[in-house]
Write a structure and sequence with these properties.
two-stranded parallel ribbon, single chain, mainly alpha
Length: about 325
């Protein structure tokens, strides 16, 4: 492709972006809708979807919006709407717990919507502080990344903490990208994710040619460096084994709603004990030689330590 064609294509795309921004600037409702949508899309970069490339959408949208905010209040609301979409898409599964017992279905909407409403306040505060410190150029990307990752730390600590949907997990979607956490931790990943995924917007917003080229290039080189670090760490990591260890994983295939029914308690415990001691291919030698037995989460509808009869049954079988 010739240099002229590249320039013309870039001009057309920039013109389209300017047209879109002009359309959004006509109404806060349009901006809030776009931010909410970008938050929804950004949540898909987290497990179990792990489409990490989608995180470019909310980070670039955040920078564009802060560039066009006229007040601190506007910036805070912008952050809240982006966060609301992000947490709503990422935490919808919380509502599934209310399907186990129909008595609490009335509370399901409060959990699905209420939790994102509260958590979005962290994004609102991060946007407001970013707006207060906003300056042109690469500086604003760096400041935004520091602030948003700092509020991620607060979200993981304040009021007992709720670090679910951590921004750093965007880079935790693959083993290679996540290895840098061994050096900088989860919140270091949050800084890198927000910084690197926001960088390409400078290609559209900056006038200097060197900035247009260097910002996306820095993003690509940064992600490549993180990936190569992880690749090297995984390839050179020592593999250690523990002798005289046999682990048995037990899966009874009991429906989740049955586990919460106290009338099934005795039957469920007997199923667990039977399956655990029966063994599996290639031998059926009970618990002989087994050093560790792993049962699934939410095994039965009571606490084993508070049920002497059940505890005795378990002790006699093992």
């Amino acid at each position: 492709m010739s240099h002229k064609k590249i320039v013309h294509r870039t001009i057309r795309r920039t013109h389209k972006l300017i047209t879109l921004l002009n359309w959004l600037d006509r109404s806060n409702f349009r901006w809030n809708g776009a931010l909410f949508l970008s938050g929804l899309i950004g949540a898909l970069s987290l497990p179990p979807y792990s489409i990490w490339i989608l995180f470019f959408c909310p980070m670039m949208m955040a920078i564009i919006r802060l560039d066009h905010c006229a007040s601190l209040k506007q910036a805070a609301w912008s952050g809240w709407w982006l966060g609301f979409g992000y947490f709503l898409m990422g935490l919808w599964w919380v509502g599934s717990a209310f399907l186990i017992d129909g008595k609490y279905l009335w509370a399901m909407p409060f959990a699905i919507v209420g939790l994102p409403i509260v958590l979005s306040l962290y994004f609102a505060a991060a946007f407001a502080l970013s707006f207060f410190l906003w300056r042109p150029g690469l500086y604003r990307i760096f400041v935004f990344a520091i602030i948003i990752s700092s509020f991620e730390v607060l979200r993981g600590q304040l009021f007992t903490g709720f670090p679910w949907n951590a921004i750093g997990m965007v880079l935790g979607s693959t083993l290679e990208l996540s290895q840098i956490a061994s050096v900088i931790g989860l919140y270091g990943l949050a800084f890198l994710a927000s910084f690197l995924f926001a960088l390409p917007i400078l290609f559209f917003t900056e006038k200097q040619k060197w900035m247009k080229i260097s910002a996306p290039l820095l993003c690509v080189l940064g992600l490549a460096a993180i990936y190569l670090f992880g690749l090297n760490r995984l390839s050179t990591a020592p593999y250690e084994t523990v002798s005289n260890t046999r682990i048995r994983l037990m899966q009874p295939a009991i429906a989740q709603d049955e586990k919460f029914d106290r009338s099934n308690a005795s039957q469920i415990l007997m199923t667990y004990l039977t399956v655990s001691t029966r063994g599996s291919y290639p031998s059926r030698d009970g618990m002989e030689g087994i050093t560790h037995l792993v049962w699934p989460e939410t095994s039965f509808p009571f606490l084993l330590e508070q049920s002497p009869k059940a505890f005795c049954q378990k002790t006699l079988c093992f």
